[in-house]
Amino acid sequence: MIHSNILNNDFYKTLDCKIAHCLEKSKEFNENTPIGRYDLGEGCFVNVSEYQPKDIQDAIFETHSKYADIQMILDGEEYIGYNKTTLLSPECAYDSEKDIRFWQGEISLLAMQKGDWVLFMPEEAHAPGLKYNSKSVKKAVFKIPY
User: Residue 81 in contact with residue 55, Cβ under 8 Å?
Assistant: First the structure.
């Protein structure tokens, strides 16, 4: 997991060419970007959504096997929960079609504000969309194939 802000994107460009590609493309997305899915090339895509964050006690962890996520706040604030899968209990079997598995367990919180992003590599557990305040959130989730 890496947590940063769009202002620091250039620092992370040397990590991986697909991550660099998505961080460069992230500069094209903001609070005025229409909701939807956008193809970014190189097998990457981004989903832009808007929602009301859920209560922390309703958090459910997820992991992915085929994709890394860069979750970037375009507007609003939220918490994203995280923990190691070795400290969580699986809630279901892995769904290869949707590339997701759900988990339950203790949560650590990461505060996310406009312009902040967090990178979760495959198999890193995260619980996004948790209430920081009552405001709605607009988010871009970049999906990077591995």
Answer: no
